TrEMBL record:
<dbReference type="InterPro" id="IPR017441">
    <property type="entry name" value="Protein_kinase_ATP_BS"/>
</dbReference>
<dbReference type="GO" id="GO:0004674">
    <property type="term" value="F:protein serine/threonine kinase activity"/>
</dbReference>
<keyword id="KW-0808">Transferase</keyword>
<dbReference type="Pfam" id="PF00069">
    <property type="entry name" value="Pkinase"/>
</dbReference>
<keyword id="KW-0547">Nucleotide-binding</keyword>
<feature type="binding site">
    <location>
        <position position="47"/>
    </location>
    <ligand>
        <name>ATP</name>
    </ligand>
</feature>
<feature type="domain" description="Protein kinase">
    <location>
        <begin position="17"/>
        <end position="262"/>
    </location>
</feature>
<dbReference type="InterPro" id="IPR000719">
    <property type="entry name" value="Prot_kinase_dom"/>
</dbReference>
<dbReference type="InterPro" id="IPR011009">
    <property type="entry name" value="Kinase-like_dom_sf"/>
</dbReference>
<feature type="region of interest" description="Disordered">
    <location>
        <begin position="265"/>
        <end position="287"/>
    </location>
</feature>
<protein>
    <submittedName>
        <fullName>Serine/threonine-protein kinase</fullName>
        <ecNumber>2.7.11.1</ecNumber>
    </submittedName>
</protein>
<dbReference type="InterPro" id="IPR008271">
    <property type="entry name" value="Ser/Thr_kinase_AS"/>
</dbReference>
<keyword id="KW-0418">Kinase</keyword>
<keyword id="KW-0067">ATP-binding</keyword>
Length: 499
């Protein structure tokens, strides 16, 4: 970027937002991590925009556009500081914990499973449908891996609206040619005006790029053969139509693409792939369960996602109860609402369990916190303890047979993890294990060396935590190996039970 930032660590924006460090740069903007001085522990992303040639109108327009939007796959803008005399303006928005899609691709060596790509497509179509249904429609115009974040609990989130605009009906072609070469539709570079169908082309280019490990983003002769075994078969013709050069030859709307994907179910086998062998029936539950307790050093770090993935793996070896253990957590209620919306049977009245989800029995924490009724019925109990924001949480966490702490793998957040461990009473030699969602191997090695321990695990991203197989399951198998052994070994009496 050709503009230097005016902000540095320790600076305070607007008397409220303390700058902790820079987390990204590009084009004419920097993005900083900000800590809210009025809401302790709350983090924000501060986008520092520079208006070129006194073009303050574009910065103001982006702010007004973002403030008007409300969707789970878009960051909320909570504050705006208009351009100063040098053209520097600031947007304060949701901080999204995760990695960009290009970093995710690097972490998996460019090999993304076909069912994951299908789920990515549906998530992006959700937000594109929301944008395009505005009047006038909002056209994003720059779908590319670096503009999309992958968050453990949310999935995909669009993070940069620098060139989005409302569609101007009746214009012959775009006045300014904007977009990223390789992902932008042909009409964005002359010959027509970009509209919602330009975003559909960009989606097709992005999905093709992901499916081919970054080798292709434009359709070419023989592409069907290159995609064989990489995607569910029903997705290939959808990609082909999305990437038609003429807008009128593509799909007419995001909703139409979603309908076309109805037959492409996540988890379906790509053409030419062999079906997996069925899982053997699980043995009956023992008299007492093994307890896996999960807690995060901060909210939004992926505790629920990881706990459900762990429960899904454990269900292969015996009966599992997953418990929404944080008293203030809304997760169980959300699961219940989703079950009701899908027409599934749910407990009557005010009952708080069980709900069956992919072979897992989901429960809300008992009011007294005592799990004796569950530990006598199930082989495994998985506790989703959130960020432990309630009295006694850390002591309860430590009582699990396998206490798994989730922390950020970002280098600049290493000190935060160390402080958290110091406050919680962690000591070398404890049974705690540490998981780093979406981190690289270097982050795990650094934390191992710093703490002098071996039990640090990188937890790769998996879009659907209830989908079996994949690299996340492999890592969880290693992490949970001690209780996956037949019979589970001798079980100590759990302090979650009544004495």
């Amino acid at each position: 970027m050709r503009y230097k930032s005016k902000l540095g660590p320790g600076d305070i924006l607007g008397g409220r937002y303390a700058v902790r460090g820079i987390i990204g740069s590009g084009g004419s903007s920097h993005v900083h991590l900000g800590e809210d001085l009025r809401l302790p522990g709350k983090r924000w992303a501060i986008k520092e925009c520079v208006a070129d040639n006194q073009d303050y109108g574009n910065v103001q327009a982006e702010a007004e556009l973002l403030i008007s939007l409300d969707h789970g796959r878009l960051p909320r803008v909570v504050d705006f500081f208009p351009p100063d005399e040098d053209g520097y303006a600031y947007l304060v928005m949701d901080y999204i914990e995760g990695v960009t899609l290009n970093r995710y691709m690097d972490s998996v060596g460019g090999k993304i499973p076909g069912d994951t790509i299908l789920l990515f497509a549906k998530q992006l179509l959700e937000v594109l449908q929301y944008l395009h249904e505005h009047r006038p429609p909002i056209v994003y115009r720059d779908l590319k891996p670096s503009n999309i974040m992958l968050a453990p609990d949310k999935g995909l989130v669009l993070i940069d609206f620098g060139i989005a605009r409302r569609h101007r009906g009746g214009a012959g072609e775009d006045t300014v040619k904007l977009g990223t070469v390789g992902f932008a539709a042909p009409e964005q570079y002359g010959g027509g005006q970009s509209d919602h169908r330009s975003d559909l082309y960009g989606l097709g280019a992005l999905l093709l790029y992901l499916a081919t490990g970054g080798k292709y983003s434009e359709w070419a002769a023989g592409m069907e053969g290159r995609l064989e075994g990489r995607l569910p078969g029903t997705l290939v013709p959808v990609l082909r139509r999305l990437l038609r050069p003429r807008p009128e030859d593509r799909y007419g709307s995001a909703e139409e693409v979603l309908r076309a994907l109805e037959g492409a179910k996540a988890g379906s086998s790509p053409a030419g792939s062999r079906p997996q062998a069925p899982v053997k029936p699980a043995p009956p539950a023992p008299s007492q369960a093994r307890i896996v307790s999960l807690m995060g050093t901060a909210s939004g770090i992926g505790v629920t996602h990881t706990s459900l993935a762990a429960a899904r793996l454990l269900a292969r070896f015996g009966s599992v109860a997953w418990v929404d253990y944080d008293p203030a957590s809304p997760v169980y209620g959300r699961i219940r609402s989703l079950a009701e919306a899908s027409g599934r049977r749910v407990p009557s009245g005010e009952a708080e369990g069980p709900l069956e989800l992919g072979g897992i029995h989901c429960w809300k924490r008992p009011e007294d916190g005592v799990l004796e009724g569950l530990t006598s019925r199930f082989r495994y109990v998985v506790l989703d303890m959130g960020s432990g924001a309630y009295e006694g949480a850390e002591a309860e966490f430590a009582r699990g047979d396998i206490p798994l702490l989730l922390a950020s793998g970002a280098d600049w957040r290493m000190e935060e993890t160390l402080r958290w461990l110091g406050r919680s009473g962690w000591r070398q030699g404890s049974s705690w294990k540490i998981g780093l969602p979406l981190a690289g191997a270097h982050a795990a090695e650094l934390l191992k060396r710093t703490l002098g321990i071996r039990e640090v695990y990188v937890l790769p991203f998996q879009t659907d935590p209830l989908a079996g197989g994949g690299s996340l399951e492999s890592e969880l198998r290693a992490l949970l190996a001690g209780i996956l052994e037949k019979g589970g070994g001798r079980k100590k009496r759990s302090l979650f039970q009544r004495k």
